[in-house]
Amino acid sequence: MVQDGISAEDLFSKPTGVTYKDFLILPGYIDFSPDDVDLTTRVTREISIKIPIVSSPMDTVTESKMAIALALKGGIGIIHSNNTIEEQVNEVEKVKRFENGFILDPICLSPKHRISDVDAIKQKYGFSGIPITEDGTLRSKLLGIVTNRDIDFEKDRSRYLEEVMTTDLVTAPEGVSLSEANKILRESKKGKLPIVDKQGRLVSLMSRTDLKKNKDYPNASKDDRKRLRVGAAVSTHPHDRERIDALIEAHTDILVIDSAQGYSVWQINLIKELKKKYPDQQIMAGNVVTKEQAIALIEAGADALRIGMGPGSICITQDTMACGRAQATAVYHTASVAKKYGVPVVADGGIANMGDIAKALAIGASTVMMGSLLAGTQESPGEYIYKDGVRLKKYRGMASLEAMKEGGAKRYFADDQKIRVAQGVSGTVIDKGSVFDFVPYLIQGVKHAFQDMGVRSIPELHEKLYNKKLRFEPRSLAAQLQGGVHNLYSYQKPIIGAE
Question: Which pTM value belongs to this model?
Fold first, then answer.
């Protein structure tokens, strides 16, 4: 049989580290459409998801809104731990309870807010059905609701909401079942259904849009009780044992031991301790980049490995610490050894586009973990800002000085040190719209990549990888330049999600 290119084993046997840009995958035979590609994959030994995307546990990337959106689309989000135990558990519980169809933390305004405040919320979040409570907070007495029909034709945007809000309300009592609330919403023909306690205080909100989401996302990542799946980050520090117990009690699906360098006595001992105390709890360990590190964590009991040390866009670990590994090389070598134990690896960092996702999967990863690609979406934490007319969101490394001051230092064994050395930076990323539009765009691109490679699934891709039928070719810097946009006076980048 005539074969061009080289095998992955040959590509990664060289002493020089390889990144995703340093190679291409040679095309295969096409006899199917992109829609025939199935991206179902394992994220841990026991947990499978429909798309190979995991969000990074960073405080500018993943809280409940991101985790809910990703789970609905078939991936999974990992809630960051740069917060109190109660705050992190609350974020996890929001995800686990979301399947009930209730918005547990609706945005509220007071009667003395103005129509312009509703406009600002609509611009930022994309909706305008706002409950009006006595003091503008949840658990305050419900007075009315403001929807588009109340304000669309109002020219004076400075009017108080008490002047325009609807006060003839249809509500449901606290404790109402999903089916009962759905019936009330359907019969009332309203877009929003406030849920109130016996004193008339707002406790949650049901939205017709969110009810439709439950029907529109058949690939949602769910546990055996039909709740959305979610992961949460923890550290190896002794004071995080209380956090771990609370997260497990909140039914966190995956505990992610969050460490920049995971090959340590503390992480190994923690994995053993947790597996003895909670044998069924799925644990993602890391970060690691070598076979030796991978084997140690797997033998300690890890159910998944997080791979990467320094490849992230906001990470400067390799420059400041002189340690790390080129990401593609790290993924291939750790995945090849983890495969023998039946443990999936998560490629964490260095994912700049859909091609990088396909490449990470092609060299052995079962999923990819993304930070910067998701940081600019509507569902990521933080406020939008404008600079030179461009809509941006803040994005920072958990080892940036800014993040470490707020608790991120524990990931780098630096939370009790007087002098802290930054291994990350703070910056901004461009607005990418909603995860509900952006992730399908990425996934469709990955499906096209699989079609070009001539494979219909991730297991088939890995089979071709290890039997050397999947062929690779290194590319020079000149080839990399030629493979991108070049020789144009100007060009317009494709619009995400455009038809």
Answer: 0.78
